[in-house]
Amino acid sequence: MVAFSLNGRNVELKVDPATPLLWVLRDHLGLTGTRFGCGMGLCGACTVHLDGAAIRSCSTPVSQAAGRSVTTIEGLGGDHPLQRAWVEHNVPQCGYCQSGQIMSAAALLASNPQPDEEHIRQAMSGNLCRCGTYHKVQRAILSVAAVEHWQPAAEDAS
Amino acid sequence: MSLTRRQFIRNVSVTGGALTLGFQLTACSGKPLQLGSEADFQPDAFLRIEPDGAIILQIPKAEMGQGVVTGMVTLVAEELEVHPERIGYAMAPVHSAFADPEMRLQITGGSASIRVYHEILRQVGATARETLVAAAMQQSGLDRASLEARDGRVRSTDGAVDLAYADLVAIARALPVASDVALKPADQWQWIGHYDQRVDAQAKTDGSARFGMDASPDGCLTAVLLRCPWFDGAVESFNAEQALEHPGVVAVFATEHGVAVVAEGYWPARQAAGKVEVTFTPPGGGLRDSAAITEALTTALDGDDFASVRDDPASTEAGQGTLVSGRYAVPFLAHAAMEPLNATCRLTEDGCEVWVGSQAPDLAQDAASRVLDVPREAVVIHNQFLGGGFGRRAAADNVAEVVAIARELKRPVKLVWSREDDMRHDWYRPPMAGAIEARVHADGSISHWQHRIAGPSINQQVLPVMMGAMLPQWIPGGPRQLVGDFVGKKDFASVEGSKELPYQFDGVSVSYHNVQVPVPLGYWRSVGHSHNAFVVESFVDELAHAAGVDPLEFRRKHLAADSRERRVLDAVAAAASWGNAPAGHYQGIAVHDSFQSCVAEVVEISLVDGKPKLEHVYCAIDCGQVINPDIVRDQMIGGIVFALSAALHGEITLKNGAVEQSNYHDYQLLRQTDTPPMTVVLVESAAPPTGVGEPGTPPAAPALANALFAATGERQRRLPLRMG
């Protein structure tokens, strides 16, 4: 049995504890917003939050999530300031990597609410996008970072 | 629906500007098209309006990021007089009504979707609008001149009548469909050229977008497949004893494609696959190593066995002027889309259903029907969003594989490729070698341009497959392969972008030699243009330097004064302040026509510790009428990132017939930190729209190579470039 908090709700399931969190989310819990890209932590498509920090769920055994708090793209609620900025800036093309991009961006803003362009580039360099949406990713994050009154801390507080 | 509408013949013909549009619900594919319900207003195959006012457009093309859904919705919205976001959309099923009118296949490629469909879809919107207005005329007793369609309603000019489209569905569906409707003039467009959002952005931002990978019919198991590492091998024997003991494993068996390991989820399937021992049949003959292939291409260039595809004789004798020559080479490339290939299959009574993100759902249908030996109509394809396509998802190998697994398993199953499977079993952009020469004269003129291209033919392999889906199923493969072999001799895909050289040189010849390799080949964003633009525009730069003329001026001088090439060159030169780069920055320029659009790019670099650094890329495109300016800019930038990833890193190599690369660490793509700022200029044009998805890619590699020459004085004639 592995038990953890998922998007604010407790889940408990019987699963091989070595199973990567990605496949527990997708195959056991039906949360398909988290994407499989490389299986080696190289592309960032599977990024989720573990206690608020961005991790690669494809190479994180579910056992590491035991007793902790996991947030996926579904947990951001669809109306998160970053998600609104993503829509406003038309960031996605094929869209496959964007859940991971947004989760990395959300973790960045949680630790550094007002990053500059260079911070953003560095923090987002682990997320590949084959369509080449990097400029818009950067612009969308900057537009949210500029909103001073927004406090990103609440989302992963557990 | 009335019988008259059912009998409407789909006849999309654009002849001298006249366009008739309709469709037949029982088309030659044999199966009637069933979309929506009898209560809907459905004037043609593409559009239906439901009684509650929901508007749904069937998208006949694959959405792989290029924005085709948004573009198509915008075109219909303009004429239907609704906001684009009011139009819902669905990926069209396989049906002859949705076959591309030029290609006769339901295929997404050649950057053709908007070029081919822009007028058809405006007609769809206008036809529905006028039929709804006719319904309002019947309801109100007013004449056409007293009514206006706007914002999804039909109103009378005096305001007394005000009907939502939903209120008119019941009447409209019983009326004859409006014909000979007038399209709005461009100066009245509200959305075309102005709308700059994406209608699929929300779903792709909140995680709800459904890709092939997300399909999950009830009771669906997951399969992985152990394929032969070389492309001409098959399973000889296997031992699955240990794998079958792995928790969660349901079955292990061989198919014609490899050894399938089926389990309750991807992880147990993948873990168990590691415990299967497989012996494959030994590799056959042919070129099996990258070194041997490179040598074969070089040997071909040394010979004279070339098929001419263009031969404009020179007016002067050869032997005058200075001979300039160079040999160029580019490698195999993988597509490496972010979503690894996958497909899901459920057997039905007479065939099967398949969930897949496909650029060619009719090829997928054909592939599935051949595996099950059933009529094509017995296969239902549910097309999904594509997590990147770039040409890879026009092939249906993943579909054939999953259907074969389902055939044995007799349960719904999803086949998931690993990233390693995806990298090692691609349909690769073929390697190419080019020998190119020309004569530079004292007066600056150029003569005796000769480009010889040697490399494998994509169409020799792919055309027979496509024909399989177009011809009756009983026609055997042999004759189709003969056609492929014939086309392969002068493969138009191998020479595109060289054959159409736009420069006014005295004497141009282009020829090709097909070098066959035992490796699957496929279309890769911009196809032949991806390598020919590199060779041609690098060599034009060589000629400019040999002639002692500025590379921009050299190009302008040899292009027609009123040409599109000159216009985009001037636009990009202005944007980049050509000739006035900041101190320590170096610029390279290139211009290239592809998919009926024309793009020029300037790549600006600096040298940091002797190593080149990308500083900025400037791009100008003439793609005719722009539908969505933001999407065109994104496609240019995306195409450039795609090209620069290949120019700097892209190389697939073979050893003993197997691909050596496996994942993003040894097949690298540009990342956020590697991508320079970019500026895109859309050259204004009222000409009909042309390609956008691919034309941004070809000029980037030569512009970069030319910038490197400007910075270092060294000419790089191979891709990937060696940067310092």
What's the topology here?
The complex is a heterodimer of chains A (158) and B (724).
Chain A: E1 2-6, E2 9-13, H1 21-28, E3 47-50, E4 53-56, E5 69-71, H2 81-88, H3 98-111, H4 117-123, H5 134-145
Parallel strand pairs in A: 1-5
Antiparallel strand pairs in A: 1-2, 3-4, 3-5
Helix pairs in contact in A: 2-5
Chain B: H1 3-7, E1 13-15, E2 18-20, E3 47-49, E4 55-59, H2 68-80, E5 87-91, H3 113-140, E6 147-150, E7 153-156, E8 162-164, H4 165-172, E9 221-226, E10 235-239, H5 241-245, E11 249-255, E12 258-263, H6 266-273, E13 277-280, H7 290-302, E14 307-312, E15 322-330, E16 342-347, E17 352-356, H8 361-372, E18 379-383, H9 397-409, E19 413-416, H10 419-424, E20 432-440, E21 446-455, H11 458-470, H12 477-489, H13 492-495, E22 506-514, H14 529-547, H15 551-557, H16 564-576, E23 585-594, E24 597-608, E25 611-622, H17 629-648, E26 654-655, E27 658-659, E28 678-682, H18 700-712
Helix pairs in contact in B: 2-3, 3-4, 8-9, 8-11, 11-12, 14-18
